[in-house]
Design a protein that fits this description.
Elements lengths: L9 H4 L14 H15 L9 H13 L11 E6 L1 H9 L1 H15 L6 E2 L2 E6 L7 E5 L2 E2 L7 H45 L3 H17 L7 E8 L1 H9 L1 H15 L8 E7 L7 E6 L4 H6 L5 E3 L2 H30 L1
Parallel strand pairs: 1-3, 6-7
Antiparallel strand pairs: 2-5, 3-4, 6-9, 7-8
Helix pairs in contact: 2-3, 3-4, 4-5, 8-9
Length: 331
């Protein structure tokens, strides 16, 4: 329970209390301080020497002396104090003051034209056990305080709301115009494009998206084969296109450690046709055989050079064997 918010979240939206003007400019807590002094003067007995019942009456007199905002006159305010709380306050002046501070600030809240049906406060022997809440709302019949201020406040809020609505309308109108312009521009841009040109443009955009994917360093060589049916399916269905890109991002970014590999990925018209094949580098002739006409291909220059040298060495060995065979038959 926090001082000034014992009733819970209702006070977060209630009008803030800016202080009660007194002739001597004392604060709310000071309202009951003078009254308490009078009670003590009247009762020479110390609170600690009172019986529990006497202290209860003494404390209730203190609460009755607190300032109550006029807007709360018609409110059903229930303050429930346990015997354990009374006993602690009777022997602990600081705790008594803390509780009275909280009650005083709650009583000073200006609810305006609407008040809770009931306001409940629970006071116990520890601060953590204390709590409060309000329930329901009703019109504060008969309360006319701060009429001019309330009227001015309502007028200000009305104008602010009208301005807010106007700004929202202008913003939505601008968005609609921007959208209409975009649609019109796209329509003009595409009206002269044939179906083949549209597909060519789509492939270029998809190639650009593939180029942005990060490929893991263990995947030395990559090729992506896409059937025409696959292109058409992605062009007609943006969700399918995004799903394929998501799968490629996952597979191309995955580690194949401890080996370095070459991989070929195949894309068709359905997810069931999506597949990936890989070969260890050095044993990846299958990669080169299946990636000759790939839509997208990225290979390591170093590995390409090794492949080229391997092919040259293979040709030389074949030439030597052919020459040796020719000599054998000539003999």
């Amino acid at each position: 329970m926090e001082v000034g918010s014992i009733y819970g979240s209702y006070y977060e939206t209630a009008k803030s209390y800016k202080g009660v003007k007194k002739k001597d400019n004392q604060d709310v807590s000071g309202t009951y301080a003078g009254f308490a002094d009078k009670v003590i003067e009247k009762n020479s007995v110390s609170p600690k020497d009172m019986t529990l019942q006497e202290y209860k009456e003494y404390f209730k007199e203190k609460m009755n002396g607190l300032y109550t905002h006029p807007s709360q006159r018609n409110m059903n305010d229930v303050i429930d104090i346990t015997d354990a709380a009374y006993r602690r306050m009777q022997t602990d002046p600081e705790y008594e003051k803390k509780i009275l501070d909280a009650i005083a600030k709650n009583k000073a809240v200006n609810f305006g034209g609407y008040i809770p049906v009931i306001a409940y406060t629970r006071v116990d022997d520890t601060w953590e056990k204390c709590y409060g809440y309000t329930q329901g709302m009703k019109e504060n019949v008969g309360y006319t305080g701060s009429t001019s201020a309330k009227g001015a406040d309502i007028g200000h809020r009305k104008k602010a709301r009208q301005k807010e609505l106007l700004e929202e309308y202008l913003e939505k109108r601008a968005q609609v115009k921007q959208f209409e312009k975009k649609v019109l521009d796209e329509k003009i841009e595409k009206q002269d494009l044939s179906e083949a040109k549209e597909m060519e443009l789509f492939k270029k955009e998809f190639y650009d998206d593939l180029s942005k994917i990060t490929i893991h360093k263990t995947l030395n060589n990559v090729a992506i084969n896409i059937s025409e049916a696959g292109f058409k399916a992605m062009k007609d269905n943006p969700e399918y296109r995004e799903k394929i890109l998501s799968l490629l991002q996952r597979d191309l970014g995955s580690s194949l450690a401890p080996r370095n590999c070459s991989g070929v990925f195949t894309i068709g018209a359905t997810l069931n046709e999506y597949r990936g094949d890989s070969w260890p580098v050095g044993y990846d002739s299958g990669f080169y055989a299946r990636s000759k006409n790939s839509f997208y291909k990225k290979v390591s220059e170093k590995k390409d050079r090794q492949k080229e040298l391997q092919e040259k060495q293979f040709k030389k060995r074949m030439q030597i064997k052919q020459f040796e065979r020719q000599l054998f038959f000539e003999q």
